[in-house]
Amino acid sequence: MYRSQYDSDVTLWSPQGRLHQVEYACEAVKQGSVVLGLKSSTHAVLVGLRRSPSDLAHHQEKLFKIDAHCAIGVSGLTSDGRRLCKYMRSETLNYRYVYNASMPVSRMVLDVADKCQGQTQTSQGRPFGVGLLVIGYDTNGAHLYETDPAGNYFEYLAYSIGARNQAAKTYLEKKYDTFTDIGQDELIQHGVNALKETVRTRDLTLTTDNTSVIVVGKNCNVQHLNDEQLQPFIDQVEADNDAADEAENEQKDGAMDVDQ
């Protein structure tokens, strides 16, 4: 049996028990530019790599504020991400109107995951081709969640999605056990360092144009860092990168001298 016989409809099961259109939507998330998140005991940070469709265009925003206590990063079809962003803003606004309080982050994530899962059960639409990283701070502390087009959701200490995300995951896996007790600035610096790992093989320099950072935490509402606030973190990671390149070149030169 050919695979194409079972991917014409999102509600059509293959003999192997798979929904191919849902898998295709999950593949779209892997094609988007990388977004990563990490949290400490008091703060949570999102860092995203913005793409520009051409030299004449502005870079496309990847991170969005939902409410004063939560924000999201999207990877995949940004238009689908904006649709879910609008839905989440509406849900948090309705919750605040009814209960006069901020919506718990876990409940908001469950709502959006249910909405994504609902799209896999109807032939009148298609799954959302976008993955989300959700950060927030509520009475239970700082949170970082990930959702996918199938409607799954998980809570993490640190995570990354999108193209070349494995390099960021490797960095975060090495450092995550130090995140618990560090401050906001150190957490942001780790996020920018992890983002640098994803573009190292592309020889791409991080700038305030292609890098975006959002932070939220205890006694700190959602803050989208502007260029002046972001520049010191980028300067630090690029300086460390230049120093590492110089050390590597010196090692190569020393090895060549020994061979001679």
Task: Tell me what the structure shows.
By secondary structure, the chain is α+β, with helices and mostly antiparallel strands. It contains six helices and ten strands; from the N terminus they run αββββααββββααββα. A five-stranded antiparallel sheet has the order 8-1-2-9-10, covered by helices on one side. The chain has a five-stranded antiparallel sheet with strand order 3-4-5-6-7. Strand 5 and strand 6 form a beta hairpin. The longest helix is centred in the last third of the chain and has 33 residues, at 227-259. The termini are far apart. The model has no long low-confidence stretch (mean pLDDT 89).
Strands across the major sheet, in which order?
8-1-2-9-10
Distance between the termini: 62 Å
Structural class: alpha+beta
Largest sheet data: 5 strands, antiparallel
State the share of residues found in helices, binned by percent: 40-55%
Strand content: 15-25%
Please state the CA-atom Rg, rounded to the nearest Å.
Answer: 20 Å
Secondary-structure element order, N to C: HEEEEHHEEEEHHEEH
Averaging pLDDT over every residue, what do you get?
89
| Overall geometric form | globular
Number of strands: 10
The number of helical runs is 6
Low-confidence stretches: none
What features would you highlight for this structure?
alpha+beta, 23% strand
